[in-house]
Amino acid sequence: MRTLILGGDGYLGWPTALYLSERGHEVAVADNFLRRQYDHELGVESLVPIAPLRTRVDVWRELTGREIGVWVGDLTDGDFVAGMVEAFRPDAIVHYAEQRAAPYSMIDRQHAVHTQVNNVVGNLNVLYAIAEIDPSIHLVKLGTMGEYGTPNIDIEEGWLDVTHKGRTDRLPFPKQPGSMYHLSKVHDSHNIMFACRTWGLRATDLNQGIVYGQATEETMRDPRLATRFDYDGVFGTVLNRFVVQAVLGHPLTVYGTGGQTRGLIDIRDTCECIRLAAENPAEPGEFRVFNQMTESLSVAEMADRVVQTYGKPVEVEHLDPPRTEKPEHYYNVAHTSLLELGLQPHLLSDTLLESLYAITEEHAHRADPSVIRPTVRWDRVRNALPDRWARGVQPRGRHIAD
Ligand code: USQ
């Protein structure tokens, strides 16, 4: 099948492109390199060096003989999106191309506006391109488990059977997102649901948990195929950060008690989930939601796993929580749809953690410990960026400038 991957230069988009290409999909990727620009703005870098997209694609062709098409452009430009969809005519569009860091979206007004404009407008342009050009194209959209928040009831896969005053209906599961970024994904979900209901589009919203890991079978074939590995206080996600912190001898930065519980997924399972969703499309008019996570752990449990498995002493520091979130809560998530399609999950194992320690040790000389601590607080409407950031490049001035 022909699969177009939006955000195909990113942490997950790139490994997914290789995974699907290896399995016979005709793959094209689109990217505007915004993720690389955020690094310049924040003065940070992926711990594992990443090659330019052109090099990545050339190396893959040399190694496998497989071609990956490249489109460079911005999804907020509707003509670009329509032109690309018209020219490539995909069977499925996998949409990763969004600003994905909650702390980045909470820096201040400009960053919140940038996040929501970039994400919501980009996704709308994708929906319109599909509706106008070929409504049978299946949209596989990356959502987030954070759309649901942490309600005191079981979290279902997108929908909830509700009986109210004697009448029953199947309604969208209530959303209580915890950041301007997570809110942008809720807005996307509403727009996609509307497009399915109104124009008969077919879509799968993958509400993904926190991804950990850095290597897949395909990215390991050559260092120039590696994907990024973030550990800074803005883009680094919790378990990847804890691994890097352990290796650098930095205390593990547990926010508050560490009682927050989240869904997790291994990067290799992300790729397989995308394949399963793309190869088993939603029906015309169907808005399908899968919870893309394989297990739940509290932040304290994640820290503990790292303390137990890293061969050297590791300190844990409980920080004054920078985010507004429930410190302890009920968390029980239904996630059977992808298992029913055949997902065989890699649960968090000591072997996986050991391989991550090895990757981190290899690149530890590139780490900048000064970017580890959290700098963005949810209870401040305007977070002052450290000087080193203020001097950085602004990402896409036309969206975040006054
Ligand atoms: N946390 C710590 N210490 C840290 C970093 C994070 O205690 O050093 C805590 C946070 O307070 C939070 C949890 O760990 O309770 C997760 O934080 P995170 O930064 O790993 O993840 P999050 O901000 O939720 O966002 C990440 C991805 C996002 C994706 C989301 C899935 O960046 O794109 O949508 O995970 S989910 O968490 O299910 O919403």
Account of the protein in words:
This protein is globular. Residues 396-402 have low confidence and may be disordered. The chain has helices spanning 13-22, 34-42, 53-64, 78-88, 102-105, 109-133, 180-199, 238-248, 267-279, 299-309, 337-340, 350-363, 387-390, 397-400, and strands at residues 2-6, 26-31, 68-72, 92-95, 138-144, 159-164, 167-172, 202-208, 210-212, 252-255, 261-266, 287-292, 295-298, 316-319. It has 14 helices and 14 strands. It has a single domain (2-371), classed as NAD(P)-binding Rossmann-like Domain (Rossmann fold). It is an alpha/beta fold. Bound molecules: sulfoquinovose-uridine-C1,5'-diphosphate. Sulfoquinovose-uridine-C1,5'-diphosphate (USQ) binds next to helix 8, strand 10 and strand 11.
What can be said about this structure in brief?
The protein is α/β, with parallel strands linked by helices.
Topology:
Blueprint: E1 2-6, H1 13-22, E2 26-31, H2 34-42, H3 53-64, E3 68-72, H4 78-88, E4 92-95, H5 102-105, H6 109-133, E5 138-144, E6 159-164, E7 167-172, H7 180-199, E8 202-208, E9 210-212, H8 238-248, E10 252-255, E11 261-266, H9 267-279, E12 287-292, E13 295-298, H10 299-309, E14 316-319, H11 337-340, H12 350-363, H13 387-390, H14 397-400
Helix pairs in contact: 1-9, 4-6, 6-7, 8-10, 8-12
Bound molecules: sulfoquinovose-uridine-C1,5'-diphosphate.
Sulfoquinovose-uridine-C1,5'-diphosphate is lined by residues 100-102, 144-146, 209-210, 237-238, 241, 253-255, 260, 262-263, 299, 323, 325.
